[in-house]
Structure formats: structure tokens, C-alpha cells
């Protein structure tokens, strides 16, 4: 086994015509002066873009999708090298990223093509002396900050709604995954979007983050990530925020559940992309009466997962950074000291951590509450569905969850008690992308999903027409 299995550090981005588009290399940290110039260009470009007909905006988005799919191989290669995403998953991310863009183009035409007409005498005491016309208009400059784990897919989920709504877009790509995101943006440039409309700012968030998120030129922020989002929300002031932050997605398993189905969903939901997903299963809460059987089924499937480097297209690849691997190891060590049952031997080589199932996890263990963002999954045994729901609701996080049972009534009743979005008989997931997607508590604010994102990135323009007071004649 090769040592130090770290994802490759981003190289200088070489795909973009710097003479036409404002993009800086992934190794280049933008200065505050450069950020100011980018924001000014975005502001100028947005004023012209807002006058562009809806059908033209949609047409360019469709064109960008076609170009992105043509470039799927090099973009996917970037994902493999930068963030150790398995090759098959990297290609899937690029290809499926086109679908929400196409849907956004069509949905945007429908939503933004409609206005509303109100008359004043529908309100008590008023005559019909006013006509009110409302429509949706762009907010201005949208700052989009996607995470490292889906630097392409979660970037386009912000870019497309912003553009169809008539905004300009400034993208702050993640440090890990920057080249992938920049290559994707280049596909939008090739589609013919105006100069300055889509810009990128690179650099470490710790160095330029505050200046960027608090910039007076930003009119809206869409952020996906961790605790950084909480800090942003406290500093951003009065501008609209759309944020998806930390998670601890739970899976509750009742006595009558199809345990083969549960085990398959746990493997897919908990270990795909080495557990580095916001919708990954992060804790299993299983009824004591079926826990032994379920744990054995999951153990058998974990044993079949392939572990190795990104180039080998394995199921489990290195986590994104040494600091992430160290954090995961800290959770594992805490669980070991406090008596958790290790279903596999804990193994680590550099950033590569072998998949690990921890049984008999107790509430005093950190991993019962904290998010490992890696291939380590805790099992908590419960004696009632109420106990499981109570554990979930006691968490600081509230994004996704799932419950497995053959009793629909029991499923619905338990779901209604959860303070989060819950799936029945399937692992948590983000999509389809037109479904609402939002977190509660420390998991975020605002709602995502294509329609919700378009609405969030627009504001209502109201025009009131005053008419003479009507004169009535008695017949």
C-alpha cells in the first residue's frame, strides 16, 4: 500500500481564456483589490443581463449543459485527482449536473414569465381605485460557495437559478476541488454568457472569506459547507442567505423492517464516496430485537467494499485532507475508550481510512452526535421508535433522516415527530433536484431545490397604478 494517500493538490488552472473571462488559477489567491474589480464587473454585467429575454437566458443554459457533457472526461479527471472521488462517481457527478441546469432553464421561464394582478377593492373598505402589478426581478450579484465533495454539482445548483433569474454570479470554489469547478465554469463561458457575468474568486476562505462574504457588492449568498456558514450568517447582515451546513443524518430501523433492504441502503447511504456526503447516513438507530441480525448483514456487505486509491476506482478512497482524517480518528478513539464494539479492525494509512461499523454506541460518545464525514458509522440500539426520534431531535443538526418499516401508519406517525426531512424505506438523498431541500437548527437556513432557489434569488417588484375615484349612477 502506498503511503500518504492524500488527494492531489490543485494545480494552476489552464483551461480559461483569461483575456475574456475573469478567472484566476486554483493556486492563485485573489487579493482584495482583485475581488473589488470582480464585483464591479459582475455588477455591470448584471445590469445588461437583467434585460436579456428569458428565452435567451434559458437557451444559453441549455447550451452550457451540452458543452459540460462534452467535457465530462477532463472535468471528471479533475474530480478524481483533486478530491479522490472514484472515477465512476466522478463521471456521474458531471453528467447528472447537466440535468438540474436544463430543468432550471425551463422552470425559470415558467416562474419568471408569470406576473400577478391585484385590484384594491378586494380589501375591505377600499374602492377599485388601484391596480397592482407584481413580477419577480433579480437581486443583483449572487455569491455562490459550494463544498469540496461536490464542487461541480453543488456549484451548478447555485449557478443556474442565479443566471435564469437575471443575476450575475461570483463563485468561490472550494480549496479542494477548485480546478474541477473552474473547468465547469469554463463550459458556461464557452456557451456564450456575457463577459463578467460568471466570475470566480480563488483562495483560502480563512484568508479572503470575510472580505468576500461581507462585500458591499454581494446581494445574496448561497453556501454549502460546515460551521463556516454559521459565522457567515452572523456577519452577512441583511442580505438573503441560503445555507446547508453540518449534518447527522439518522436511520431508524423498526422491528418489522426488511433488513436486507436496510443493509443495502446503509451501505449505499453510509459509505458511498467514503461517507463524505451531507445526505449520508451518519448514525443507525435500530430496535434491539433486530439489531444483531442487521449488524451481521451490514458487516457482510462492508467486507465486500473495495479500499484503495482514487486511480483504482475503489468504493472507499482517501478522505479529503489530513485534518479530516485526524478528526475521524479522534471520534474512533473516543468511542473505543468508552466501550463501543468494533465490527472491523480500525485501519488507517495516511488519509485512507478503512470502512468501520461501531456497534453498541452510547450517548456519551462523541460519534453519537458529531459528524465524522468519513467511512465510520455508529450503531445505537434503541427500545422504541420514540427513543430514536428523541435522539434525533436532541441533535444540534436537522437535515435528513430515514425510517425503515413495513407499517405505513407507524412510519408516518414517527416522521411527523422528526424535526427534519425524512424518507421512508430509503436512504437519505438530496434529489430529485426540484424537491425542496432545507435544514433546521445548525443544519442551515433557507430552502433549496430548483423552484425555491429561483424564488430566493429574486425579489418582488410592485407597480401600483392609481385610478380616479369611480362615480356611481343610480339606474
From TrEMBL:
<dbReference type="InterPro" id="IPR015590">
    <property type="entry name" value="Aldehyde_DH_dom"/>
</dbReference>
<dbReference type="GO" id="GO:0008911">
    <property type="term" value="F:lactaldehyde dehydrogenase (NAD+) activity"/>
</dbReference>
<keyword id="KW-0963">Cytoplasm</keyword>
<feature type="domain" description="Aldehyde dehydrogenase">
    <location>
        <begin position="28"/>
        <end position="463"/>
    </location>
</feature>
<dbReference type="InterPro" id="IPR016160">
    <property type="entry name" value="Ald_DH_CS_CYS"/>
</dbReference>
<comment type="similarity">
    <text>Belongs to the aldehyde dehydrogenase family.</text>
</comment>
<dbReference type="Pfam" id="PF00171">
    <property type="entry name" value="Aldedh"/>
</dbReference>
<dbReference type="InterPro" id="IPR016163">
    <property type="entry name" value="Ald_DH_C"/>
</dbReference>
<dbReference type="GO" id="GO:0005737">
    <property type="term" value="C:cytoplasm"/>
</dbReference>
<keyword id="KW-0521">NADP</keyword>
<dbReference type="GO" id="GO:0008886">
    <property type="term" value="F:glyceraldehyde-3-phosphate dehydrogenase (NADP+) (non-phosphorylating) activity"/>
</dbReference>
<protein>
    <recommendedName>
        <fullName>NADP-dependent glyceraldehyde-3-phosphate dehydrogenase</fullName>
        <ecNumber>1.2.1.9</ecNumber>
    </recommendedName>
</protein>
<dbReference type="InterPro" id="IPR016162">
    <property type="entry name" value="Ald_DH_N"/>
</dbReference>
<keyword id="KW-0560">Oxidoreductase</keyword>
<dbReference type="InterPro" id="IPR051020">
    <property type="entry name" value="ALDH-related_metabolic_enz"/>
</dbReference>
<dbReference type="InterPro" id="IPR016161">
    <property type="entry name" value="Ald_DH/histidinol_DH"/>
</dbReference>
